[in-house]
UniProtKB/TrEMBL annotation:
Keywords: Cell shape, Cell wall biogenesis/degradation, Chaperone, Cytoplasm, RNA-binding. This is RNA-binding protein KhpA. HAMAP family: KhpA. GO terms for molecular function: RNA binding. A probable RNA chaperone. Forms a complex with KhpB which binds to cellular RNA and controls its expression. Plays a role in peptidoglycan (PG) homeostasis and cell length regulation. Pfam families: KH_KhpA-B. It is found in: Cytoplasm. InterPro entries: KH_dom-like_a/b, KH_sf_prok-type, KhpA.
Amino acid sequence: MQAFLEYVVKGLVHHPEAITITPVEREGTTIYELRLHPEDVGKVIGRQGMTINAIRSLLVAGSAKKGLRCSLEIVEDKPAR
């Protein structure tokens, strides 16, 4: 599922080299933490969250087909002061 996420997200952004996807296991669910270049966050979220919700729907459907439970979160790293 991680390869699927990388493929989809890299097609949407201007800085594909800045993408990192980290799988984290929590309570039987794999949560993919997506880190992006700050300029690309809006592109991945989309208007009213339509794009990120579509990606999440595809992720849930694909993982359920394999008998897995997955979720996607965008992690925005706060700049150090």
